[in-house]
Amino acid sequence: MNDTVPHPAPPAHTHCTPEEYAAMYRRSLADPDGFWLEQAKRLDWMRAPTRGGEWSFEPPQIAWFADGSLNMCHNAVDRHLAAHGDETAFIFEPDDPAAPGSTLTYRELHAEVVRMANALKALGVRKGDRVTIYMPMITLGAVAMLACARLGAVHSVVFGGFSPESIAGRIQDCESRFVVTADEGLRAGKTIPLKANVDAALDLPGVAVEGVLVIAHTGKAVPMKEGRDHRYADLVSDADCPCEEMAAEDPLFILYTSGSTGKPKGVLHTTGGYAVWAATTFRHTFDYQPGEVFWCSADIGWVTGHTYVTYGPLLNGGTSLIFEGVPNYPDHGRFWQVIAKHRVNIFYTAPTAIRALMREGNGWVAAHDRSSLRLLGTVGEPINPEAWRWYHDVVGEGRCPVVDTWWQTETGGHMITTLPYAHDMKPGSAGLPFFGVQPVLVDAEGQPVGGEGVIEGNLCIAASWPGQARTVYGDHARFTEAYFSTFPGKYFTGDGARRDADGYWWITGRVDDVINVSGHRMGTAEVESALVLHPCVAEAAVVGYPHDIKGQGIYCYVTLMEGVEASDALATELRQWVRKEIGPIATPDHLHFTDGLPKTRSGKIMRRILRKIAENDYGALGDTSTLADPSLVDRLVEGRQNRG
Ligand code: WTA
């Protein structure tokens, strides 16, 4: 825990030395309104806000800058035109390294966003409408987000790896009447049938939309439904399309994310607070300098892609690289080749990718020039110190500070991270709270855990910050229940954490029924519901277990219907079934057929025991005497050991 890597000496350009951080952090807590109203000046407001945070967590009601108005797209694009119109906004690197990439200057991006906004208008989209975006990782995906923001429409981006069932659920939940998609996506040389998936989603009962906008990406001929589907090229126009004036608290986007219960939640972010948070965190965490090339490898279907591929970089007038491919195609040097090709200065990726590439050896890294790199970042899951070291020493040649950024879909942007030239780094620790963030630990009873030394508990945030989600779309009661009821008066993150004697935060992982697979959140309840839909399955219980590359793997205990025999063929079929129901990221790693699930006499499944067995940790099974059938545990342990 006391393995410390000193921060490099602050370069002349930096906007945050150690002393500045300490002073700014103190001020952000002592006078949050003054501090954030000042940060809000990074943006162009149509009406400048005079009010800061107006919020309560009991019950949750959250507003920031409520008397201000602005447009996100104006701030991300239009306002840079006068002084920086010819600078690069996006660099696109395709899946196939031999295929031509492209770049868009701010002026070109503006023209493209206007064209897309006009196409959306022609489709029927108006201010306040929800628009589902199901796109490959191409520039037009980000353009679609910006075009929605321009019109005041609320985007709901659905990750291109999700199934038709998942798309349908998300369309229905937010009553979206419009979809933006592409013919196909490309990943590792394989095509992804995006339009066909949308068609399948819209064929499901009870799902109807008015218009589908189809972008030609691979050029594959796709069926077009008369009256509903429109080719992008047929609807675009260069007509003038002004930015809508939006109140700071008008919604900007909905993004679905997994929770411990039920279906994914539509986390809602509003315009002003989110914009201030995205702009401020991007600038400080990455110490972004004009002209630098920033590459965040996340897909725009996740919050990381929203805040650090699209909005954060553009709000700062930066250059953001959009990569359609994967780290190991056509070979394990692909990331480093892209860094060399585009002279990337700041690289931001997930620990799972780092672990997977580390395993392939240093040769792939050494083969490519990384002298352009200045800063490295990670996000999505705890990083093990070994992977951190490799990233820092081998990828960054020991020269580049590493920022390990802890945050969530619900937080809008970074919450805990070291700042590159202000804080020493500790491999495996996310570091210190960002401005305005007040992390606190509470025990199982909700009592604060305090003291000067090392403390551990459930991670909560004591006070609101501008980037905080405002509600769950259409279900404020669920927002209250999920985040503010376990520990009343505080925002509960769902994570466990430790704070060391130096004030550094160490995230220990989820403490709820959410698992983190390759940096993606997956609700165990979602996988269970998918499994029990299969006619052979009687009951299912799903838990996470440690996985070398993915961080956590998906372990499924399944009981079968009377008369159905367990077999390897059935296991394969169930894996495929879950993939089809949710998407490839939910594919079970382990299927464990059992004749029963450990339950209390009142019928509650004892997940603690299932987790321990999945972890191969039999010494810690605890008291099993309250089980309805204590001998079941022995049979489960035997089943686990037989599987290796
Ligand atoms: C986990 C992704 C440790 C955490 C931005 C959180 C992390 C969940 C880190 C949110 C990190 C994210 N260290 N754990 N640096 N970053 N997490 O909503 O469990 O997809 O609650 O947002 O990822 O996942 P989400």
UniProtKB/TrEMBL annotation:
Its cofactor is Mg(2+). CDD domains: ACS. It catalyses: acetate + ATP + CoA = acetyl-CoA + AMP + diphosphate. Acetylated. Deacetylation by the SIR2-homolog deacetylase activates the enzyme. CoA binds at R187, A188, G189, K190, T304, N328, S518, R579. Keywords: Acetylation, ATP-binding, Ligase, Magnesium, Metal-binding, Nucleotide-binding. GO terms for biological process: acetyl-CoA biosynthetic process from acetate. Residues 78-462 form the AMP-dependent synthetase/ligase domain. Mg(2+) binds at V532, H534, V537. It holds the Pfam family AMP-binding_C. Residues 21-76 form the Acetyl-coenzyme A synthetase N-terminal domain. GO terms for cellular component: cytosol. The modification N6-acetyllysine is found at K604. Residues 526-604 form the AMP-binding enzyme C-terminal domain. Its EC number is 6.2.1.1. GO terms for molecular function: acetate-CoA ligase activity; AMP binding; ATP binding; metal ion binding. Catalyzes the conversion of acetate into acetyl-CoA (AcCoA), an essential intermediate at the junction of anabolic and catabolic pathways. AcsA undergoes a two-step reaction. In the first half reaction, AcsA combines acetate with ATP to form acetyl-adenylate (AcAMP) intermediate. In the second half reaction, it can then transfer the acetyl group from AcAMP to the sulfhydryl group of CoA, forming the product AcCoA. Belongs to the ATP-dependent AMP-binding enzyme family. This is Acetyl-coenzyme A synthetase. It comes from Aurantiacibacter luteus.
